[in-house]
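Retro notes, item 3 of 5
We never archived the inputs for the zinc ion complex last cycle. Fixing that now. Sequence and ligand:
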Amino acid sequence: MIYEFNLKNPAFDRVVFLLTVDKKKMSERVIIGEAGEVRLRLERNIGDFFYDEVRPIGSLLFNFETNPERDWNVNLMQIYEKGFKIRLSVKSVPKALNQCINFLRGKYENGEPSAMFAAIRIWENYLRCYNINHGADIFKDRSAMLCKPFHALSEYKAWELEAVNALQTALHAEESQVELWYPVSKRPFECVVTYSSFLTIIFYYLNKIEEWGLVFQECKVCGSYFLTKSRHFELCGDECRKAQAIEARRQFDERNKDEKVEAIYENHYQYWYNRLRRLKKSNAAEADILAFTNIFNKFRKEAVKRKNEVKSGKMKLSAFTSWLAEQQNIVDGVVKRGGEKWK
Ligand SMILES: [Zn+2]
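Structure as it came back at the time:
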């Protein structure tokens, strides 16, 4: 069922936000809808709803609506200041409210349940308060109460102590009310239901997490937050586990490649070194030994440079090995020709 932000009288009896958290499945379920319908949904899987999703445990806290640009305030003030002075007609929406309706509809359509619920409740509240005494002020108080966590959670994560402190300041009596539902057919499952404020939902959630000994972690691969049973789990899901395995394999290959290029270099170095040693043993002239030492040093310098280029990926391993073979042929040819000078 899609919520229509129109000017008909509030069509719904009491729209509620229901949360149930499953420790075994490590999941959460949120249902938004009229209280009676939500009950039907829960117990017999029938009934209309605006939102009904099962997500990984903690999703509500990780994705909770925030208000860094204070857009919620701007639009609520617009309704507070203009919305109660205009004549409402079902046929056409007054210009002054157009922007607010679009804002609320946008929040509703973005699909994040905290924002969806706030949008519906604010609009229902407006229609409800429009015809009553001091309606504008009641509307303003109720809306502010509903949006309170959005400000705190713009600055802090829900599970940070600062957030809890910010949320708890000036807690209204009305905000601390919560209903616990126990669906008949699923008795072990406890559901927490709110109507006017998210605070109790957030505190209930944090308490459950603490009671179950779960920990908040930041995924090492994608950086998103998740809940887990132990600090040892550092990855949020299968996708990131797969990504990390691929990365580990790549690093392994990389290290292997480095080792291989070192070994090849080492072999060639040894080859040249042995040639020099043999030359020294064969009573060669001082000048010949010096000349060979010079080209050996030149070879070594160039070989180290190329070896590093292979490691950093600037040169292919095959190009390096064929260059080494070329150098070996040159030195072999020179040695074979015996008496020739090493120049
Ligand atoms: Zn991840």
